[in-house]
Amino acid sequence: MPITIYSAKGCLRCKIIKQFLNDSGRTYQDFDALGEGRNAFRTFYQNHREKIHRGRDGVEFPIFSEGETIRQGLPMVLAHLMAGPVLNGFFKHGLLHGQWVDGIHISGGDPAHSEEFLNVLLYLKQQRLKLQIETNGVNAPLLEQVLERGLAERVIMEVKGPLELYDSLLQSPVDPEEIKRSIARVSQCGDYYFYTTIAPIIRQHDDLEQGSYITPPEIAAAAHLINMAAGDNQQPYRLKAFDPRASEDPRLRDYKALAKNDLFKYRTMARKHQFKTEVI
Measured between alpha carbons, how far is 206 from 99 in angstroms, rounded to an integer? Predict the structure, then answer.
């Protein structure tokens, strides 16, 4: 299948992808989506609207198309070009621009393909880009490799909740020691923070599923977990409001969002174990 790249004039990330294709000897057709190729891109966008991400700043470029395969944004396109679909889950759409690249999720992919993942990060670093890495604690050995090789400038760890809720929140079995190991390693970084989203949880009661928001005592337990794993109560810890409209779990989209004032009782409980807890 022929490769098509939709790019934008002056887009550094587009140039990186086209240089990679040139260096690897792969042929492709390039359309300036905002210039002479706008009509081609408009047709492509209309035919694949559901697959094209439009963020707060508009459509992100570059966009890669090969048959039915579409990837968007530098990390996702590069990962596909370097390793194909085996890295699906490691990369998502990002929000940062300029030198910073985000949307890199250590916990989202298959650790069997760690080396391919690390090769993508290394290539991005060779382009003089700064990488923001995210984790929820799963895939701790891969996190350690990333940090040992100096492949991340900033690390953000989502502490999903207290350990006893991790299986429910991730909908899969989790090794508690791996979560503690990740917390301990993240706390040694130069630029990092922990956060928890105050979100609903699907709880199992007598074979019935019932949903309810995580409670202030459960947030206190999550803050205590950070304290025990990191070794102190001075860790940067942030509490984030849940947005039902953006939930990947369709069961949670009908929940009413909490008002920001409702989050302060969570902060009060968390500060018993992490003094620097803030609401964002």
Answer: 51
Please give the structure tokens belonging to residue 23.
């260096």
Note whether 185 and 147 are within 8 A (CB): yes
Q: Which secondary-structure segment (H or E) carries 234?
A: none
User: Residue 259 is encoded by which pair of tokens?
Assistant: 């008002």
- As a whole number of Å, the end-to-end CA separation of the chain is 45
d(CA 6, CA 8): 7
Question: pTM of the entire structure?
Answer: 0.92
DSSP secondary-structure letter at 91? B
Tokens linked to 11: 């887009």
Tens of each residue's pLDDT in the chain, 280 residues: 799 999 999 999 999 999 999 999 999 999 999 999 999 999 999 999 999 998 888 899 999 999 999 999 999 999 999 999 999 999 998 888 889 999 999 999 999 999 999 999 999 999 999 999 999 999 999 999 999 999 999 999 999 999 999 998 888 899 999 999 999 999 999 999 999 999 988 776 545 566 789 999 999 999 999 999 999 999 999 999 998 888 888 888 888 888 888 999 999 999 999 999 999 8
Domains, the chain, in order of start with CATH, read: 1-72 (3.40.30.10)
Q: At residue 243, what is the residue type?
A: D
Cα gap 62→64, rounded to integer Å? 7
Q: Which amino acid is at 184?
A: A
CA–chain centroid gap for 49, Å, is 22
